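In practice, a research group might receive sequence data for several interacting partners and want a quick structural hypothesis before committing to experiments. The following worked case mirrors that situation: the sequences arrive first, and a predicted assembly follows.
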Amino acid sequence: MPELPEVETIVRDLQKQLKRAEIRQVTVVRPDLISGSPAEFKKRIEGCTVGGVTRRAKNIVFDLGEDRLVINLGMTGRVTVLDRDAEDPPYLGVSFELTDHRRITYQDVRRFGHLEVLARDDWNQRSEKMGVEPLSDGFTGDTVFRLSRKRRVAVKPWLMDQKHIVGVGNIYASEALFRAGISPLVAAGRLTKKRADALATAVREVLREAIEFRGTTLLDYRDARGEKGEFSRRLRVYDREGQPCVVCGTPIKRIVQSGRSTFYCPHCQK
DNA sequence: AACGCGCCCTGTCCGC
DNA sequence: TGCGGACAGGGCGCGT
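A structural hypothesis for the assembly, expressed as tokens:
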């Protein structure tokens, strides 16, 4: 569900809302969502002050001092800051009661999400092994060109593979390829340098715009205030099968690649 | 090593 | 109306 823009939106909300927030008590409602035992999870978080909230790939990272609380939202995870007295939201997985009048809740219908506490160094090590951040200075057409060499897989699933570039999921992969005029079916390794440049630009632009509009809500996504994202209406191909291409009017096609839907314009994307 | 696929789980929608 | 199948922003582990 949430890709880079949605996670980034949530993180920015949380940064503002949780300045120096202190966590008093943790309640694990669904132990299958966390790594390790609920007792250990509680022990390592209770009493900690949130020093900051950042994003790495599609993960929300809470700075707890020595430890990091890392949340991956899976498909339907939500992190919301509520009044402490507000009733439990549906599909509540974990609740973090703060020392002020609020609490942070994690809800997840499908429970593909994941919460984990780990030591700062362990997290840093893991983070170093992840793919490149597409909004970082280090991400250019050269990056795309270099990483895609000799890859025979189609560029769309390649773009979604977090080993190379992080944060791009099913929606923004289709959207970026449309903007770059590249067919989702071409082999990643066959991209010319020029097309790699265009793709890098398209990825950066679509992610930036989506953040500006607070992400895409198809169904489940909500930001940390419980609001939907506004980028949905600006999608050019995703979920638009049969509708006219915004550029040329050709009906948008839907195909399945690696088990995921891909949407594209067969006329504009070659 | 790289890649495709099934699976995790619950809800919704569509066709028959 | 009811039911089965397909599908949904992700990611892991398996086999080839």
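Before designing any experiment, note the following. Chain A has two domains: 4-129, 141-264. The mean pLDDT of chain A is 97.
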